[in-house]
Design goal:
Elements lengths: L4 H11 L34 E8 L7 H16 L3 E7 L5 H13 L5 E4 L4 H10 L5 E4 L9 E6 L1 H15 L4 E8 L2 H17 L4 E8 L10 H13 L4 E5 L4 H11 L2 E6 L2 H4 L8 E7 L1 H14 L5 E5 L6 E3 L10 H13 L10
Parallel strand pairs: 1-2, 1-3, 3-4, 4-5, 5-11, 6-7, 6-8, 8-9, 9-10
Antiparallel strand pairs: 10-12
Length: about 350
């Protein structure tokens, strides 16, 4: 997958050659359901702040998770008058110590606030935030790293995945769909659980193939399009006609396989019918949109005004933090049905499982 050259050069310059490793990973009002115990940062950033952002594996240019975070930062640059931003990339296989050093160098460089993109930063964020109590940190997709200066930005991925699972079942003519996960970790299992539940809500007897590209601590499954393509090819060959991926940059390979098999694919995190390579966009019938851009911007807006809260903010379906996309019009004919499911989830009539049964 594409890597952002500038980000890597920036990381090298900032670390002074110290960072040799790579990091692991993947209609309602905006979400504001922060933990009531959350408190404002001890030293909130002001407008004109220097903002640091540490990417998950894949970095800017992954057309998915990291690009969504980048979009939130870009909006903040335009609208919040940030003085300076520094974006550091990660790669597969690095230790927590390398992640800690990345965050520590940002803090030492005067960047405040600092955003860590991905659950793999959990331990490093908790440790470095303790060392720099006057710096405000945020981490995406993790609730375990807690502290008075840490904001946890999390999503109801299972709810959005239920909707695209329903879409897959409604569109499948073979009663056979698939799910490709990047790495088999609890977070990605939430995507699988929601997808399977949504598909089976439509057709109780539908067959759902599941394949994970790697197992932790190997997080390369989020940045290996070749593996994504091989996994999807196997599913299409076995009879599936719609495949959903939650595999970051590896999803590009899933789209290639769908194109070759005359099948359909479902994107993740970003509206990938807009962000994927142009020659495969027509196979992406919808995407489970996880609004990391909104969460990043909301956090930066709060931090620059002194209103950021520590603790958890949940971006769920009710808060429009997750949804399904309609780009390309391929789900227009089932939109009414999908919206019915959406309202039932929001109202509590349907409770979407977070774990695979």
């Amino acid at each position: 997958m594409l890597q952002n050259r500038f980000g890597r050069l920036a990381a090298t310059a900032l670390a002074g050659g110290m960072l040799m490793g790579a990091a692991a990973c993947g209609g309602d009002e905006p979400a504001t359901s922060a933990s009531p115990s959350g408190a404002a940062s001890s030293a909130p950033a002001a407008s004109g702040a220097k903002v640091g952002l540490a990417y998950d594996i894949g970095g800017r240019g992954d057309q998915s998770f990291n690009d969504a975070a980048a979009a939130g930062l870009d909006k903040a640059k335009t609208e919040l008058g940030l003085a300076e931003t520094k974006e550091l990339e990660a790669g597969n296989g690095e230790t927590d110590a390398a992640k800690e050093e990345r965050l520590r160098l940002l803090a030492q460089g005067g960047f405040n606030p600092i955003i860590a993109v991905g659950f793999a930063y959990s331990g490093p964020v908790k440790k470095v935030a303790t060392e720099f109590p006057d710096v405000k940190f945020a981490i995406v997709d993790d609730e375990a790293a807690t502290g008075p200066n840490i904001s946890n930005l999390v999503f109801a991925e299972h709810e959005g995945s239920f909707l695209v699972g329903a879409a897959a079942a409604l569109k499948s003519t073979k009663n056979h769909v698939g799910f490709v996960g990047g790495v088999e970790v609890p977070l990605i299992k939430k995507f699988e659980a929601g997808f399977v539940a949504g598909a089976k809500a439509v057709k109780s007897d539908i067959k759902v193939d599941v394949k994970y590209l790697t197992q932790p601590p190997d997080f390369a499954g989020f940045a290996d399009p070749a593996k994504g393509k091989t996994a999807a090819e196997g599913m299409f060959d076995a009879g599936a006609d719609v495949i959903y991926h939650a595999a970051g940059g590896s999803g590009g390979g899933v789209f290639e396989a769908a194109k070759a098999a005359n099948g359909k694919a479902i994107g993740v995190d970003s509206d990938q019918a807009k962000t994927a390579a142009e020659d495969v966009r027509d196979v992406i019938m919808t995407s489970m949109v996880k609004k990391v851009d909104v969460a990043v911007f909301d956090f930066l807006k709060g931090a620059t005004s002194g209103a950021a809260k520590s603790g958890t903010t949940v971006y769920d379906l009710k808060a429009s933090g997750v949804d399904y996309s309609t780009t390309g019009g391929q789900v227009d004919d089932i939109k009414t049905k999908l919206d019915e499911y959406k309202q039932k989830i929001i109202s509590g009539e349907i409770t979407v499982p977070k774990e695979v049964s």
